[in-house]
TrEMBL record:
Gene3D superfamilies associated with the record: Galactose-binding domain-like
Domain named DUF642: residues: 27-183, 194-358
Signal peptide from the UniProt entry: 1-23
Protein species of origin: Musa troglodytarum
Coiled coil: none
UniProt entry keywords in alphabetical sequence: Glycoprotein, Secreted, Signal
Localisation: Cell envelope; Secreted
GO CC annotations, alphabetized: extracellular region
Protein name: DUF642 domain-containing protein
Length: 369
């Protein structure tokens, strides 16, 4: 009986160790929504006093543990999800160790809400990669946005760090952070029926289950590895990654909303044969999110341009557009952007949806458009 009890204890100990030994899975990080609270003895009001007080996280600097509905003067602090979030003061950071697979690509998704700072930014890093994400533009109407940032794992164990490099006079003017998640990215390969990768945008960052606001993909200048494999954001502002659970999507489960006019351009470089004629076909529409108006999506490739109009009623729907062009080089950059800025009645930024993009020789029998 004693031997059996020892065996059972050993098996139980082994099972409890398994999560530590396995690579992290897609979804929220351990205590990624900060709902597991610090002990009362580790808090001085809202300030977290101990480095390891927040379960699963290590902190440095002025970090606060904020409950939904907390007030700072006349300002009500918004917690994106659940009952709790953390706030990062000047030079403060949160860190978590991740066990990953060396060489694979990963995308981090997290929600952030501005507070009282004027020029809020966040530095997201996983050694040796880092990116500085400006969050002073609020795209949604709820007071927060979700952001994606990607990295390639250089080691089997890495540290994810979210750091506020702010220098505000009030250290309590930093951003709120919530709902930190991860997703393994598998960059799609080229196929015989398309010269573009990830044509339907199906491979992309983790979308939080209750995120009715989508996920922002930052410009390429702020992210060495795109969270949207195959594509880069070649502009000053972000594009929004949306899913069919919360938005109208022309094809499949995912699409991209061009939310910042000519300041958010989506691009990909394809192999082409000079002097050969190609057709760039794509779907444009609206996300069914109340974004109403006369929309125009501009497409560019080689010396060719096209402007495809779409009259949005804000209830969903799409149409096909085609740009035919002659390649002038062995590499051709295709670019999409929205001609106009659009806002919903609540003032939040919105725009046309792009999906189902194909690039083929015009002689190909499988061309859709």
């Amino acid at each position: 009986m004693t031997k059996m009890m020892h065996c059972a204890a050993a098996i139980l100990l082994l099972c409890s160790a398994v999560p530590i030994a396995l690579a992290i899975t897609d979804g929220l990080l351990p205590n990624g929504n900060f709902e597991a609270k610090p002990k009362a003895s580790d808090l001085n009001g809202t300030q977290v006093m101990s480095r390891y007080a927040i379960p699963q996280w290590e902190i440095s600097g002025f970090v606060e543990y904020i409950e939904s509905g907390h007030k700072q003067g006349d300002m009500l602090l918004v917690v994106p999800e659940g009952a709790y979030a953390v706030r990062l003061g000047n030079e403060a950071s949160i860190k978590q160790k991740l066990k990953v697979i060396k060489g694979l690509y990963y995308s981090i998704t997290f929600s952030a809400a501005r507070t009282c700072a004027q020029d809020e930014r966040l530095n997201v890093s996983v050694t040796p990669d880092s990116g500085l994400l400006p969050i002073q533009t609020t795209y949604g109407s709820d007071g927060w946005d979700s952001y994606a940032w990607a990295f390639r794992a250089a080691f089997e164990e890495v540290h994810l760090v979210i750091h506020n490099p702010g220098v505000e006079e009030d250290p309590a003017c930093g951003p709120l952070i919530d709902s930190v998640a991860i997703k393994t990215l598998y960059p799609p390969k080229l196929t015989g029926d398309n010269l573009l990768k990830n044509r339907d945008f199906e491979e992309g960052p983790y979308v939080l289950p209750n995120a009715t606001w989508g996920v922002l993909i930052p410009p390429n200048i702020e992210d060495d590895h795109s969270p949207l494999p195959g594509w880069t954001v070649e502009s000053l502002k972000a594009v929004k990654y949306i899913d069919s659970d919360h938005f109208s999507v022309p094809r499949g489960k995912r699409a991209v909303e061009l939310v910042a006019g000519k300041e958010s351009a989506l691009a990909q470089v394809a192999r082409t044969v000079p002097e050969k004629v190609y057709a760039l076909a794509f779907s444009i529409g609206d996300a069914g999110n109340g974004c109403v108006g006369s929309m125009v999506v501009e497409a560019f490739a080689a010396r060719g341009t096209a402007q495809i109009p779409y009259e949005s009623k804000g209830t969903g729907g799409y149409k096909r557009g085609v740009l035919r062009f002659t390649a002038v080089a062995e590499r051709t950059r295709v670019v999409f952007l929205s001609t106009f800025y659009h806002t919903k009645v609540d003032g939040s930024l919105c725009g046309p949806v792009l999906d189902d993009v194909s690039l083929l020789s015009v002689r190909s029998p499988v061309l859709r458009g």
